[in-house]
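Hi W., the phosphoenolpyruvate complex you wanted:
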Amino acid sequence: MIVLIKKDCPKDEVNEIIAEIKSYGVETDISYGDGTLLIGVVGDTSVVDRYKIAANPYVENIIKVSEPYKKANRKFHPDDTIVEVNGRKIGGDSIAIIAGPCSIETREQTLETAKGVAKSGANFLRGGAFKPRTSPYAFQGLELDGLELLKIAREETGLPIVTEIMSPRLVEKFIDDVDVIQVGARNMQNFDLLKELSYTQKPILLKRGLAATIDEWLMSAEYLLAGGNNNVILCERGIRSFEGYTRNVLDISAIPVVKRLSHLPILVDPSHASGKAWMVPILAKTAIAAGADGLIIEVHNDPKHALCDGAQSLDLPQFDALMNNLQKYAELEGKKLC
Ligand code: PEP
Ligand code: MN
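Structure:
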């Protein structure tokens, strides 16, 4: 439910309306759209006496929000959300580029890749320290040692770090050490993890689940927002289908759909979507044309010898060529690489 307040409503009166709404045991979420104040109401709104609230002359209208996601809903928050990370913006008119290896493997691999992507203009460094692998016998990541290598790479390049969390037990450690916490596709509905991450303001990159609908994905974002974390970034990374040529099917239409339904920024991961390095630049450009706010791209200093996802990783010259090319695509969309 959204309560629209008239533009000439005095501040004291606004506070009184908010107090009255809250007296029904629901929560309020304030935002502005076109200069109009919107009071979003979340919780059990069936107990709210909407006729009593509508009787206030400063209440312009009361709108019922039928979608199950409320705080993630564009109706609650008409303007685009821009998430700021160490002075870098994700959302709005900038295109954010997150690049780096699938997994942190060695000091040399991490630093060479990090320096390479920084030189080509990436804004963030990615790299998995804790890896969600299908096989328990596959490389599981360097775990806490990998996190330390990422921190060294941040020191050396100045790039904020983005890395995946798998366990709620590590939330505090990640809050201390990481700039953007990634929730991977396999954990999109790990509600305990989402709840823990909702109590911080640390930016969260929430990937779409392997076979999640857009509504399910937005409901996972709602878990983060419901606990008070407003810094949520979505990431489309391809969904399961019968097609086997590509690793997943990049759901390009999810970008305009999410933009219409939600105010949250959305990035695209062309690497996990395709599983093939040669396809990454094509999908990256397509994502920008479709309105994505940025990209997360796997880059490795030596893809042939990567311990994970080498086939979909660009090498450093390929990433450099792509970055030179993307500028034009960003400009076509009235945006700039940030
Ligand atoms: C990753 O980005 O390293 C990853 C495992 O991606 P996803 O969760 O999208 O499969
Ligand atoms: Mn990977």
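The first strand starts at residue 2 and ends at 5.

W.
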